[in-house]
Design goal:
It is built from three helices and four strands; from the N terminus they run αβαβββα. With 80 residues, it is an alpha/beta fold. It has one domain. It starts with a helix and ends with a helix. The model has no long low-confidence stretch (mean pLDDT 91).
Length: 80
């Protein structure tokens, strides 16, 4: 939501699997309002948060949580 609403970034979800389960899950919780598209992995370039450094620039995280949220916001260009 922050990346889409406050930083005006396009938010893309990447997957190597079927897209429908991701869409249904995100739609159920209203998150698709903030996601621009669900793509196959590697189709687009740009800032990535990933679990491994597959494409540059990737910021490797196992999850976004309280401990690394400020860093993620800073990387997206969000200023409080």
């Amino acid at each position: 939501m922050v990346a889409h609403v406050f930083c005006h970034h396009s938010v893309l979800i990447e997957t190597d699997f079927e897209k429908d389960p991701y869409y249904k899950f995100l739609k159920k919780f209203g998150a698709m309002d903030f996601v621009d598209d669900i793509l196959n992995t590697g189709e687009e370039t740009g800032l990535r948060f990933d679990t491994e450094p597959r494409f540059a620039p990737s910021h490797v995280l196992d999850r976004i949580d309280h401990d690394n949220l400020d860093l993620c916001l800073e990387l997206m260009g969000y200023r409080r």
